[in-house]
Amino acid sequence: MATRIRRLTTRRSPPKLLFLALLMLTPVCVIGLYNYGQKISYFFRPLWDKPPLPFRRLPHYYAENVSVEHLCRLHNWSIRSQPRRIFDNIIFSNELDLLEIRWHELNPYVSKFVIMESNTTFTGIRKPLFFASNRARFAFAEEKIVYGVFPGRIASPGSLKDPFVLESLQRGAMNGLLHSAGISNGDLVIMSDTDEVPSPHTLKLLQWCDGVPPILHLELKHYMYSFEFPVDYSSWRATVQIYTPQTRYRHSRQSDVIFSDAGWHCSFCFRSLEEFTLKMTGYSHADRVKRKAFLNYSRIQRIICRGEDLFDMLPEEYSFKEMIKKMGSIARSDSAVHLPSYLIQNADRFRFLLPGGCKRNIVQLK
């Protein structure tokens, strides 16, 4: 009996090799998940996530020297006797060059430029009030500017506060600033980030036509780092809305209707490497900076010129087909056609945004 008991005990005890293997694999798996967990999650996204409902797309008709009355009719809208007022409504961080381009493009059509900036990033890092200290640069629009400062919150070292909370509070504060700008029922309000720029002919059409949907998302051509690296037409968060007392500032999906090819979205389109690191550590997706090496200037410069991903991430897609299609670096374009006219008129000043201009300054020019 004793012999049988010893044999049973021996069979039930795990082999030492298996135990050692598990002991060695466990930390390897933990480190692997920490370093590549985001990639693993994104790669299998088509299995665990579903795409949002598709937009109802409105065709966009435009050509030079075609009357706005004719264009309204092509969209099944009617011409107005006078144009609507337009309020351009943005929160601002440090995108001074894109802001200058944006406001020069939209100035002929906009009644008020409503802009708010904060003394902290969304992640609670203290930052200068870049617009306030550079306001003279925008003297051409001074009479139209309605400016506000949002008091941010300084994050304590090691805190894990959700940056989306602070972003939401700042966007919510825009409602009061927009109201103080004098907006009225029936006016048009643009809700977008600084780098999401509607084309001038889009605004002219929407302000002169009756029958426009009350909330209209704008499909913007998406670029990365400059207009040398076109990505796709996936940008949809910008909206133009006909204002009512119920209108609230948001930067999310608010309608099922989107207006095709309505402008440009230039992400991380900065003049200096310093500006890149400020955004990388300060915006709501700062958790994508997995290692300090991501903020190395030489690394960022190399990635910009190659059209690669700053955060070493896989494409955020809902199908394996689309994911595979977008893997790798962004294909370069030599075209500088159908870009903001102010950019082309001042190409020498904004060479970094055009083909062949991928080299950046180290620090931001004040």
UniProtKB/TrEMBL annotation:
<dbReference type="GO" id="GO:0003830">
    <property type="term" value="F:beta-1,4-mannosylglycoprotein 4-beta-N-acetylglucosaminyltransferase activity"/>
</dbReference>
<dbReference type="Pfam" id="PF04724">
    <property type="entry name" value="Glyco_transf_17"/>
</dbReference>
<dbReference type="GO" id="GO:0016020">
    <property type="term" value="C:membrane"/>
</dbReference>
<protein>
    <recommendedName>
        <fullName>Beta-1,4-mannosyl-glycoprotein 4-beta-N-acetylglucosaminyltransferase</fullName>
    </recommendedName>
</protein>
<dbReference type="GO" id="GO:0006044">
    <property type="term" value="P:N-acetylglucosamine metabolic process"/>
</dbReference>
<dbReference type="InterPro" id="IPR006813">
    <property type="entry name" value="Glyco_trans_17"/>
</dbReference>
